[in-house]
Design goal:
Four copies of one chain form a homotetramer. By secondary structure, the first copy, chain A, is of the alpha+beta class. Chain A is built from eight helices and 18 strands. Chain A starts with a strand and ends in a 9-residue tail after the last helix. Strand 11 of chain C pairs antiparallel with strand 11 of chain D.
Chain lengths: ~350, ~350, ~350, ~350
């Protein structure tokens, strides 16, 4: 298992769903950044379970800064963050190592780790570990904010409801004011109806999150292997339930002509901008200065209330499975701050590589 | 610029479009693999320019093995591959550093490297460097073939022509027997018509390449940061013109319900398989043993014959641009073996990490 | 600050001397290793302060396994270890950021981190962090023990007292039965006299630790950049107070002739051994199967009770300095288990690279 | 085999002693550095074989810059350097895979790579590959020179002849003006006598190279795992025949008292210097601004003309061995520019990590 992200702003994750907690060590954070547990808590609260429409699991998710901060500022030394697990009901998951849940990592994890993996609540495979990514991302976001960089995220599509014309302002204003994290209040209501229907049906739904990173300076990204797309893509494809990532027009670019897709150059305030932003803010893997726009596709939650048929790996017989425990009808709803965190971690990492953030902040 | 791929089967690229040539050093290849320049040449010939419908540039693309092979077998030492450039017409590109081509890396490269970048034919940003990736991938493919692993690739979609029901056998048989690399001969003809129209119009088209990796054993992939999706995704998003990557159902999974998307488990020959393969061969970032299926979206070629308007960065005035030089109307056609190479490099890297390929071959 | 060790058995450190504690995350430990906090505690107790002749600071040094172990065995997921700080007297160190201690990192740390570094007890520069290295090393040692590998360490030289003829058996039996960690009881007494004199004089002494790794199979080590020497050397030179590392004859080899230094080959039980072991167990950076023998030079403890003259960086005037706080008269005494830990971490890392330890233990 | 050096200024080596040549790809070199083949050739000529007292092998060692330089300046893209082998006499080495040379990597290489390694002239294990390191180091030296950094090196000790009082000026003036690379002309003569005797006797001698890096700014080095000592140490211990590395007082520090070893702080021109430099230019793994001083111990050349007894691995019988081929009586003599190159590569790497060298040079 590899839970190490980044090259210059490095995040090493650890923890399990039903163990003592989850945490991470961040290496490479510049010295001199004002940082409190409250800064991180704000971000963590955005993904906290127990909100409307998501899993009823109640976690306080209180983050502790265990190292790397002194007199309210980062020191340049590794920062250890830790979040205790509280509301753990291991008994709900007891049988899963024999009767694997379709769509889950139960079988592949058991195979890879010789059955030694902690299978309770998916153990180290659980989306619970993304709490530590959001915590690390909160630090990255704070670094970026100093440079005027803003990261917007929202659920652009849920099942068949899709928003195509959200403005930055609409995302900024609305995404965190409705439980489906949608920039368009009307679409948000339609999404809620789909979720209500799915819940009633014991089923789950997939979704697409769109993320926009505003005001990143041009010249960020190390083509090819550390291009903006490679780094954001790699980080997002590491998240549970993610099945695709696209930039700018993405897969739609395959249906376009060059004369449509090419963004024309204009001069603006002495710099160069593009008239359109089909490219999504990068050319040759390097930022253009235009917003970085990308979308992440999430599959429907694997754990559904509906009875499923699966294989009992001990008896080698098919049997009925009713997955107990607590689950989100759509993992993407809680994933918006997670995708934003991955964007922040990616951009900070690349800005440090490009020396666009100093090692000591003044 | 970062041209370093992989953790255990490492590929370091170098070279330029209009310089002396392109090459790479491969570190971590197991000892004892029979390897000739012919083995690599076979793969290189698949992406060679000068074939129907692609750029008229003529390159012999003769690969030389400069180190790491002794008496016909790999030694365990780094392998240096080199391909000379022959058919270089630098004069066609002379003016591009002043009048950047829309959709190209001209502006971002000049900005990032202070104008010191080799701008001739995009220099180190050129798709020409993918020749070295294909060469490295040829070695990876040979390693995988010993274990029965096969990598299929084809153009699944070109503009509005899409093939949704290609069998493995159809891809194996047809993809390299028509110039558009399509598994379906009928669709291939429609694709050719679209290309003819685009060429006539001085325009270019986007496309989607599908890749299938067959017979990868279960248990490969290091969740999360080195998951199958992260590694393949990162490698493919490093390629020029790529705007998206998806696995299994990909973005379509966002429109599905959990009860549809979950793949049911079955027993087969003592092992576990899934009835369907919506997941595309991975769960929790680890291979299931089912085919790994992914798709890569390519934008339309940025260089088009059509006159475009762009900014002269010296005069700060808009001016007309006619891009000369030699270009593919659809970069994806030549990219099929490149995507296959990235798949091979990714899987070998992960199999070495999982100790599924020994360091010395018998 | 970079506290990340290893490529396949990765250790990421965090913590401070006078903060909440010290810890680490270990990534890459094979699944299935029986592991308790007691296993780690045994090793930690060997470096515990408060023993004779070392600093009177009293730390319980109780390690907690926070993740990565389930039902008594490692799971393959990252292992987070944490040790709380208890006996912290920050007030002793208050003034050091203005009046730097000669021989300490006070000045360089303040310079590098813009004065944001935690200077209390040297903060993240403190030898206290080696507790986390010893904890990680305890896991590595347990992995190696399963393969019959043993790591011996002792203080070979303290100031002018040197032991040149210690047998493996003498080290095994005596090193941890006297407070100076010396394999020779008679020399141990002489070393103690030197320390008593130094303490009386308010001074400190340097020393050399010798380490022997027995029964490592041949073929371990990745020449050149990950040679046995490079990896052990890099890890040991990362430790506080270390000024040199040598292998086999080391610097004495410079005074030898080839005909003396070359180790003759012999056959033994079907394998190849060498008659002598001047090379110290490696040739070409790869293990020969003979004991790996290396020595690490430690400078005398920088913190001495004697009054020193130093620069007040605020007033820019020379002033007298009496370093308070609690210090070892010879850091090397407590460093024996630390050097053994670095040897264990190095060898496990290289054995995993060479596929000599499986990813799942049976 | 791992021939990859550095984290930000990365050097990937390839090649063999008796293959087509040796080379490397350098990734991470800032853009805008004026660079010609002549710049590199100057450094290469310093280690060229065929000089007095070293192996009679004649190599032109003409370096070719194959990529990464455009219009006389580095572009920011990877730089591929290649040096053809010319004077190759493979037949001299034919039998060595059966009758291993004592002190060489013949046995360990064959064991590790299953006998597939190129054994001619030690193949990829040959010191010939250090030509590529010197070539890469030449670029690093040029980068450092712009910042006023100078790297001095000389043979401080050869067998029993040792120079302890060489000034920087003496090294600068004398080291490359006598064939034993010694700073002291008188000692140089004594060293030559030792070498003459050894040659007459068919034997070889060990030596110590001292290296001093002047004018490195304070604040360079990432404690702990990328401390100045760890990085230089790791790079030097990767070289053939090296058995030890020490910094400042090194092993002699073990015999010193704290009150002797601690370097007192003084003010100088508004900055902080130390009265002495026992530490060798680093505290806490970070540069102090004082000269970085380190020494590297080389064992005597393993290949000697004297008849040796060894094991025939095929017949399992002891037999007499006369090593033919061409060899240096003391490898260290040619290693002075190599150690200087490793110092340059290490310091550039750490300065880039510390953002003390920009990514684009003006």
């Amino acid at each position: 298992m590899n839970q190490h992200y980044g090259k210059t702003f490095e995040v090493q994750l650890a923890g399990e769903s039903h163990g003592l907690g989850v945490g991470c060590i961040i290496q490479g954070c510049p010295a001199g950044l004002p940082l409190t547990e409250g800064d991180i808590q704000n971000e963590l609260d955005k993904r906290k379970p127990g909100q409307t429409l998501t899993t009823p699991r109640k976690e306080e998710d209180k983050v502790q800064i265990k190292s790397g901060v002194f007199e309210g500022k980062t020191t340049g030394a590794p920062i250890l963050l830790w979040i205790d697990n509280h509301d753990v009901q291991s008994q709900s998951y007891g049988k899963l190592n024999e009767v694997p849940r379709p769509g889950h990592a139960d079988v592949t994890a058991a195979e890879k780790y010789g059955g030694f993996n902690d299978y309770r609540g998916s153990g180290a495979f659980s989306a619970r570990l993304t709490a530590a990514l959001v915590a690390a991302g909160a630090i990255a976001k704070k670094l970026l904010k100093r440079q005027g960089i803003e990261i917007l995220g929202h659920v652009q599509q849920l099942h068949d409801v899709k928003v195509t014309d959200a403005t930055d302002e609409a995302i900024r204003k609305n995404a965190y004011s409705n439980p489906v994290r949608c920039a368009d209040p009307k679409a948000a209501k339609a999404m809620q109806r789909r979720l209500d229907e799915a819940l009633l049906d014991g089923d789950s739904l997939g979704a697409v999150i769109e993320c926009r990173v505003l005001n990143v300076p041009s010249g960020v990204g190390e083509p090819r292997a550390q291009s903006v797309e490679s780094v954001i893509g790699s980080n997002c494809l590491a998240l549970p339930a993610v099945k695709g990532v696209e930039f700018g027009e993405g897969f739609a670019a395959a249906t376009m002509k060059g004369s449509q897709h090419n963004d024309a150059y204009l001069e603006q305030d002495g710099g160069i901008v593009t008239k359109t932003n089909h490219a999504g803010g990068t050319l040759g893997g390097i930022t253009t200065g235009m917003p970085i726009v990308f979308r992440v596709a999430f599959k429907p939650t694997s754990s559904i209330a509906k009875t499923q048929t699966t294989l009992n790996v001990a008896t080698k017989k098919q049997e009925k499975l009713n997955v107990g425990g607590r689950h989100d009808p759509c993992v993407a709803l809680r994933a918006v701050p997670i995708v934003q965190a991955m964007a922040a971690l990616s951009i900070v990492d690349l800005m440090l590589q490009a020396q666009k953030i100093p090692r000591v902040l003044k």
